Amino acid sequence: MPETIEVVALVRWEAGRLLLVRADYQTAFYLPGGKIDPGETHEQALHREVREELGTGVRDVRFLDRYVADAVGQGEGVRVGLNCYTGELVGTPAPAAEIAELAWMSRAEYLDQRATAPAIVALYADLG
């Protein structure tokens, strides 16, 4: 059975654009978020990851959906379980920690990137 890496992610969708980040070690943009530490709830992990990656807080957190797809850059057969949450940012997001870039992208802009994450493509399809 293939390995599935469980992660949490923040979905900020404004004016037809999704808030995305790219880590300095990745080629694909993805949602702000990351792995859940042992003993953390999904919401605790989301708050920690948003603080680490964007330098902001998040409030009014609500579960949106879960996507399971091939994980980008994690090796053959590794999947990601992307647990998506919505919420309002508290502060202005800026790249922090390992984040090299932050961008607001439409679906078309994302699909024009040289590397994309299958779970993000599926999310865009659901967002419209």
Output the keywords:
128 residues; alpha+beta; Nucleoside Triphosphate Pyrophosphohydrolase; four-stranded mixed beta sheet; three-stranded antiparallel beta sheet; globular; NUDIX_hydrolase-like_dom_sf; hydrolase; NUDIX_hydrolase_CS; NUDIX domain-containing protein
Summarize the structure.
This protein has helices at residues 42-54, 107-111, 118-127; strands at 4-11, 13-14, 17-23, 33-35, 57-70, 79-90, 99-105. It is α+β, with helices and mostly antiparallel strands.
In total, the number of strands is: 7
- The geometry reads as globular
Total individual domains: 1
Helix content: 10-25%
Architecture blueprint of SSEs:
Elements: E1 4-11, E2 13-14, E3 17-23, E4 33-35, H1 42-54, E5 57-70, E6 79-90, E7 99-105, H2 107-111, H3 118-127
Parallel strand pairs: 1-6
Antiparallel strand pairs: 1-4, 2-3, 3-7, 5-6
